[in-house]
Amino acid sequence: MPALKAVHADGENQLLESCMHCFLHRDCLPALVDRSHSHKMNEWIEHLKPIQSNAYIFRQEDLFHSIYFLKSGAVKTYTIAYDGQEKITGFYLPGEVFGIDGFSTGCYVSSAKALETTAICSFKFNRLQKLSNECADLQSCLFKVMSHEIQMQQQWLILLSKYSAEERVVFFLKNLSDRMRKRRLSKTCFHLPMSRIDIANFLGLSVETVSRTFTRLQQRGAIVIKGRLVDIKDFSEFDSYWGIGDSCQILNR
């Protein structure tokens, strides 16, 4: 695959200014470490050119070299099974880190593709690893990123193995809502960057089942959905399934 191109600022101050103007800079890795190490990290962040919809960030079995921070847009990750079928393993939204799954094997275990025009920053993992030996805050942050990824994969496995189609769809929407809220975006009204085909693939359902579930939820007044725009009208409908709480925790109760 062609290498993604980085936009390097003309001078350190411009690069730092670019990061400070990003509305997600408080959630990015440099903001989570002390000032001296943050300054060093800012020197080698790569701000990649906008990636168009359906373009790859990396492919399954590419050599692992970087992890990525999503600034805007959306990304899906997926693997190709032995029978050639695509299986979606995750969707990533602004403020989230992806690509760390290649650390253990030295190769990315999934492919990552933009779902819409997407802006990302990349961090060379060998530099992060070296700096983490000097900076306990960064080491702790990387462990948290890895732990969160493992936790979410476990949550989705539980969901797919134990719960009904409607429960899966409700949980999926609740999880998106929680993630929007954490990034100071609207938790009630948001755009679905993924198609219903992708949602069905991810949840292990048919497209028809996903569409019927959306229709039932809409008829009960829980949501209004127009195309890919979702407006959650009644969270009590969601709470009747899962109770009140963060979707990252409720399946472990």
SSE layout and pairing:
Blueprint: E1 6-7, H1 12-20, H2 35-43, E2 46-48, E3 56-58, E4 66-72, E5 75-80, E6 86-92, E7 97-98, E8 111-114, E9 119-124, H3 125-132, H4 136-162, H5 165-182, E10 189-191, H6 196-203, H7 207-219, E11 223-226, E12 229-232, H8 235-242
Antiparallel strand pairs: 1-2, 2-9, 3-8, 4-7, 4-9, 5-6, 5-8, 10-12, 11-12
Helix pairs in contact: 3-4, 6-7
How would you describe this structure to a colleague?
This protein is of the alpha+beta class and 253 residues long. It folds into 2 domains: 151 residues, Jelly Rolls; 90 residues, Winged helix-like DNA-binding domain superfamily/Winged helix DNA-binding domain (Arc Repressor Mutant, subunit A, Orthogonal Bundle). A 5-stranded antiparallel β-sheet has the order 1-2-9-4-7. Strands 3-8-5-6 form a 4-stranded antiparallel β-sheet. Strand 5 and strand 6 form a beta hairpin. Helix 3 crosses helix 4 and helix 6 packs across helix 7. It is globular and about 55 Å long.
Quick synopsis:
Helices cover 40% and strands 20% of the residues. The protein has helices at 12-20, 35-43, 125-132, 136-162, 165-182, 196-203, 207-219, 235-242; strands at 6-7, 46-48, 56-58, 66-72, 75-80, 86-92, 97-98, 111-114, 119-124, 189-191, 223-226, 229-232. The longest helix is centred in the middle third of the chain and has 27 residues, at 136-162.
CATH topology of the largest domain: Jelly Rolls
Q: What is the total tally of β strands?
A: 12
Major sheet details: 5 strands, antiparallel
CATH superfamily (homologous) name of the largest domain: Jelly Rolls
Low-confidence region ranges: 1-17
Q: Provide the CATH top-level class of the largest domain.
A: Mainly Beta
Q: Helical percent range?
A: 25-40%
How much strand content do the residues show? 15-25%
Which value, in Å, is the CA radius of gyration? Answer: 19 Å
Shape designation? globular
Distance between the termini: 43 Å
Mean pLDDT: 80
Number of spatially distinct domains: 2
Instruction: Give, in spatial order, the strands making up the sheet with the most strands.
Output: 1-2-9-4-7
Helix vs. strand class: alpha+beta
H/E series:
EHHEEEEEEEEHHHEHHEEH
CATH architecture of the largest domain: Sandwich
Determine the number of helices (DSSP H or I, runs of at least 4 residues).
8
